[in-house]
Write a structure and sequence with these properties.
34% strand; 68 residues; 4-stranded antiparallel β-sheet; HMA_Cu_ion-bd (chains A, B); homodimer; copper ion binding (chains A, B); alpha+beta; Alpha-Beta Plaits
């Protein structure tokens, strides 16, 4: 398992937190997600090889947020 | 039909807009809802007698926002 922190712009409320969390957790290979609304950071624990950073980035962007 | 504008605190994004809009539209007697995120105002068209201001206020507060 690998851990990464992704910087996301535009998350403002609990609904945003849920949207990003659920989108990431739906990806096979992602096991844990923790969104920090105060600083726009998303901690992800994932299985490298099963899911790529690009896939996680795309899942977040599909919800309407920017990965910065 | 009556029109009212409700001042709501804490709506920040499209998800908030959807949550408040849907909660109000689920009330029998509410026909139109327009959320203005920029100033926190919610325009409601409703059938007075079928739905009360208190019911609309409660529906908004149940979603986690404050009516001010």
């Amino acid at each position: 398992m690998e851990k990464a922190t992704i910087n996301v712009k535009g998350m403002t409320c609990g609904h945003c937190e849920a949207a990003v969390t659920n989108a990431l957790k739906e990806l096979s290979g992602v096991s844990e997600v923790k969104v920090h609304l105060d600083n726009g950071k998303v901690d992800v624990t994932f299985h490298d090889g099963k899911v790529s950073f690009d896939q996680m980035k795309e899942a977040i962007e599909d919800q309407g947020y920017d990965v910065v």
